[in-house]
Amino acid sequence: MAQPFELHGHRGARGLFPENTIPGFRGALGLGVTALEMDVALTADGVVVLSHDPILDPALTRDPEGCWLEPPGPMLRDLDAATVARFDVGRVRPGTAQAAAFPEQLGLDHVRLPRLDEVAALEPRAMLAIELKTFPDHPDRTVSPEAMADAVLAVLDAAGAVGRARIISFDWRGLRYLRRIRPSLSLGYLTDAETVAAARLWWDGSSPEDFGGSVPRAVAAEGGAVWGPDHATLTRAQVEEAATLGLLVNPWTVNEAADMARLIDWGVGALTTDYPDRARAVIPGAP
Ligand code: G3P
Ligand code: CA
Questions:
Q1: Whole-prediction pTM value?
Q2: How many CB atoms lie within 10 A of CB 41?
Q3: Measured between alpha carbons, how far is 177 from 105 in angstroms, rounded to an integer?
Q4: Which parts of the chain fold into alpha helices (H)?
Q5: Taking ligand 2, which is a single-atom ion, which protein residues have CB atoms under 5 Å away?
Q6: Which of 42, 118, 147, 268 has its CA 20 to 30 A from that of 89?
Q7: Residue 274: Cβ-neighbour burial (10 angstroms; 0-12, 13-18, 19+)
Q8: Cβ–Cβ < 8 Å for 46, 74
């Protein structure tokens, strides 16, 4: 039987709600996503929190007095979880690129960075698509991919959520490690132009050159079942090649209805979007 189509809400539903927040994930669930995409970081005391960047992003963050942080923002790895919880990430700073990019995004107050365990408790039917944000070109910004993977897995084990989790990353070191220590875990191999161009760095020694220039073949050689390419450079031929390899293709971040419809027509099995409302309108059979 064909797998049901996966609708992943990017950072919750970033186009509509504050990213990587509990209200944002609740909003995304209300719009019918089947999976919550999120980014994780570790605090100084080892707590897994949600953040796209390894810093408290000044474009999103107000201090306990309500003042916007100034760049570059403190590193999360230098702050303990109690300190992180005092900051407000409920709205985008006016005048920033993020504010211009997501003009419909709801602004809220008194919203803190959630912990992964809190998000795991939200909706037991939702897939948790958890992106390990580690950077082989900037190892100083985070713990090692193995340490981040261990911390995430510990939270999922404690929550009984391993079976509905998918760990995704551009940095394939963490995915290789997880495949070794927990072979049953669902893994998604993210790619974009930058990491493909520097694949030996991002893919732990592997490269498309080793596979006739084929990225999907490189994913399959890792033992991967899910490929998460940047939709902007994805081709129909790649989607078809991935299908012959048995890969589920999950392009990101697809925000225009015409692109969604085209990719579905090509045969992708999942979409990650900032606008789940737009996606539901084009996914065949969506309620
Ligand atoms: O799901 C992959 C996608 O989230 C990657 O982009 O930068 O938003 O984490 P980014
Ligand atoms: Ca992400």
A1: 0.98
A2: 29
A3: 36
A4: 22-30, 81-84, 97-101, 116-120, 145-159, 172-181, 193-197, 199-202, 215-221, 236-244, 257-266, 276-282
A5: 39, 131
A6: 147
A7: buried
A8: no
Quick one: tokens of 277?
């409302």
Quick count: other Cβ atoms within 10 Å of Cβ 257? 14
In angstroms, the CA 84 to CA 258 distance is 39
Helix-helix angle 172-181:145-159, to 10 degrees:
50
Q: What is the pLDDT of residues 210-262, one digit of tens each?
A: 999 999 999 999 999 999 999 999 999 999 999 999 999 999 999 999 999 99
Q: What is the pLDDT of residue 43?
A: 98
Å from CA of 95 to ligand 2 middle: 23
Give the C-alpha separation, 141 to 205, whole Å.
21
List 229's β-bridge partners, or say none. Answer: 191
Q: What residues contact 78, with CB distance under 8 A and at least 6 apart?
A: 44
Cβ–ligand 1 contact at 10 (below 6 Å): yes
- Per DSSP bridges, beta strands 226-229 and 248-249 are parallel
Q: Which two tokens stand for residue 172?
A: 């394939």
Torsion of CA 39, 85, 58, 129, to 10 degrees: 10
- Rounded-to-integer distance, Cα 116 and Cα 165, Å: 12
pLDDT digits (tens, 9 = 90+) for 162-217: 999 999 999 999 999 999 999 999 999 999 999 999 999 999 999 999 999 999 99
CA distance to 9, 97, 186, 208, 226, per residue, from 256 (Å): 14, 19, 28, 29, 22
- Cα of 85 from ligand 1 centre, angstroms: 23
Ligand 1: does its nearest atom lie under 6 Å from the Cβ of 133? Answer: no
DSSP 3-state assignment of 23? Answer: helix
Nearest listed ligand to the Cα of residue 40: 2
Are the beta carbons of 273 and 8 closer than 8 angstroms? yes
